[in-house]
Design brief:
The N and C termini lie far apart (27 Å). 32% of the residues lie in helices and 43% in strands. The model has no long low-confidence stretch (mean pLDDT 93). With 91 residues, the protein is of the alpha+beta class.
C-alpha cells in the first residue's frame, strides 16, 4: 500500500472512526495502515490484492514483540469503517 492508497483507505474508514480509534494518528508501516490506539494496542489494516479486500487486526506490542489479539479477514470497503472501529474496542 502506498501513500495515496492509504489516504483512500482512511477516507473509506471515515474521519469520525479514525478520530475515535486513534485520535487522528495514522501511520503507514510495512505496507499496512496502522492506527495506534494506546497502551501498546493498535489497529492494523492490510490490503489483500488477490481478494480485493482487507484484513483488520488488533495488535498488542510490548518490547518490540507484536501479538495479534484478533483478526478479521475478507473485509470489504463498505464494512471497513465498522470493522476497524470494533477492532479497537476488543480486549
Amino acid at each position: 500500500m502506498n501513500v495515496s492508497q492509504a489516504r483512500e483507505l482512511v477516507n473509506q474508514i471515515g474521519t469520525a472512526n479514525v478520530l475515535a480509534i486513534s485520535g487522528g494518528r495514522v501511520r503507514l508501516e510495512d505496507g499496512m495502515l496502522v492506527l495506534p490506539v494506546g497502551n501498546g494496542y493498535s489497529v492494523e489494516v492490510e490490503y489483500d490484492k488477490g481478494w480485493d479486500s482487507y484484513t483488520v487486526r488488533r495488535v498488542f506490542t510490548r518490547s518490540g514483540t507484536k501479538r495479534v489479539k484478533s483478526e478479521i479477514e475478507n473485509v470489504y470497503c463498505g464494512e471497513i469503517g465498522e470493522v476497524a472501529y470494533r477492532a479497537h474496542l476488543h480486549d
